[in-house]
Specification:
By secondary structure, the chain is an alpha+beta fold. It contains 5 helices and 26 strands. Helix 4 runs antiparallel to helix 5 (about 385-405).
């Protein structure tokens, strides 16, 4: 699993780097407890030396918990004897108790956040998010496929063919004694149960034209759900108590052109179901979910495999004979039909909005992002300052530009594997 870092951790780091971060504190009087919703009180400020009146004036307060999470206000007045901060702007929402956390910055923390987002784009490809996209399926006679939108133009690096593991014959599948592949009957989806709001039907394969709603075999399950409604479509494990305390992994191929409407689940008895990652709306996708089988009474609904490891993926075949043309991935030779494509590439880092938002970046690489953000921030400040202050800002710009150019913390893109000559006697792809 990729390592992520939250904005709530990166923002103070950037603040410290450029001398903006004053500290993190907690309220000692509930917001609204004085009768005013523009007052924040913390004796912690006084305890660490902020005892002079007005010393925090024109600084910025960012609330990091409670009813006013992520609110930012300019400090208009500070009373050192009581640790009382008066804020500009509209009223805050009252908190029921003390202990609300907040941070104080010399510069607007939202402006610092914007500098981080600008820096994430400017730092590409020195900093990027690795993308493993599996939303395309090879179709008969089709050579051109849309480049996954999560991969930046020109940054597809590797392409693989992924065969489907046959669920009916896979020995570790604890559902293989049932209709796990939807092939038992041409008129009914035996062993599967739908709830209210779900209508199921057998979807038969056709040719000339090919029916893309059938991924492999002769048929699949077609599910229809009423608008604004939800429902479930489940299959139950035989002898479920055999798997007490084991890790259960359910995997299913689903076709959808609508995002966030379909998710895999595992449910033990009548307990709350565990949900996996929702479908992205990209066509055929392999959805997975894992849960631990504990306190089983009588049923396990859904679930594909049982054991200590994740649901397996079949061995992949690497494809060399491809090119990227504009917004498309183009195969120069015909590929076998009904294989899933695994496309590896480099994507832009996520945009950060609220403190809990995360960016896919290891902590040791955050330093480089912070340097880029500091450079971006001071570049923006240059035209907003007087002539006498510009020399100081130019020195900061030079300093952080040098830091971003020394290469420390830069990422290395996945190896580019394309247009290579295959070994004699082999096809354009081979087992990798």
């Amino acid at each position: 699993m990729a390592t992520t870092t939250a904005l709530s951790a990166i923002l103070p780091q950037l603040g410290r780097r450029i001398g903006s971060y004053i500290g993190s504190f907690s309220t000692t009087t509930a917001i609204g407890g004085t009768g005013s919703l523009t007052v924040v009180i913390s004796t912690e400020l006084r305890d660490i030396g902020f005892t002079d009146d007005d010393v925090l004036n024109d600084s910025f307060l960012k609330i990091t918990s409670g009813n006013n999470l992520n609110e930012v206000r300019l400090i208009s007045d500070y009373t050192g004897s009581s640790g009382t901060i008066t804020l500009t702007g509209t009223d805050l929402t009252g908190d029921s108790s003390t202990g609300t956390t907040f941070e104080i910055y010399r510069y607007d923390p939202d402006q610092l956040r914007d500098s981080l987002n600008d820096a994430a784009r400017q730092a590409f490809p020195a900093l990027f998010k690795r993308v493993d996209d599996r939303t395309h399926t090879v179709a008969p006679g089709q050579a051109r496929y849309a480049r996954p939108s999560t991969i930046e133009p020109g940054y597809i690096r590797q392409v693989y063919l992924v065969p489907k593991i046959e669920s009916k014959t896979y020995s570790e599948n604890i559902l293989k004694d049932q209709n796990c592949d939807f092939e038992e009957s041409s008129s009914a989806l035996t062993d599967w149960s739908d709830s209210a709001n779900i209508t199921d039907a057998v979807e038969a394969d056709t040719t000339t034209p090919n029916n893309f709603m059938v991924y492999r075999g002769d048929q699949s399950a077609k599910l229809t759900c009423a608008a604004t409604s939800t429902g479930t479509f489940t299959i139950s494990v035989t002898d479920p108590t055999n798997y007490e305390s084991e890790e259960l992994n359910f995997s299913i191929w689903v076709y959808s052109k609508y995002a966030s409407l379909v998710s895999p689940i595992i449910q033990i008895d009548s307990d709350t179901a565990t949900s996996g990652t929702a479908h992205s709306g990209g066509g055929w996708e392999r959805l997975t979910v894992s849960a631990t089988a504990s306190n089983i009474g009588s049923t396990i609904k859904a679930g594909l495999t049982s054991g200590p490891s994740e649901v397996p993926i079949a061995y992949e075949a690497i494809v060399f004979d491809w090119s990227e043309e504009g917004d498309n991935l183009v195969f120069n030779t015909q590929q076998p039909s009904h294989y899933n494509l695994h496309i590896v590439g480099c994507g832009a880092l996520e945009t950060l909005t609220a403190g809990a938002d995360t960016i896919t970046l290891e902590p040791h690489r955050v330093n480089l992002l912070v340097d880029y953000a500091a450079l971006t921030f001071f570049e923006g400040e240059l035209d907003q300052t007087s002539a006498e202050d510009q020399n100081a800002i130019l020195r900061q710009i030079t300093h952080y530009r040098n830091k971003t150019q020394n290469g420390r913390g830069e990422m290395v893109a996945p190896t580019l594997k394309k247009n290579l000559l295959p070994a004699a006697g082999s096809t354009s792809y081979g087992i990798y």
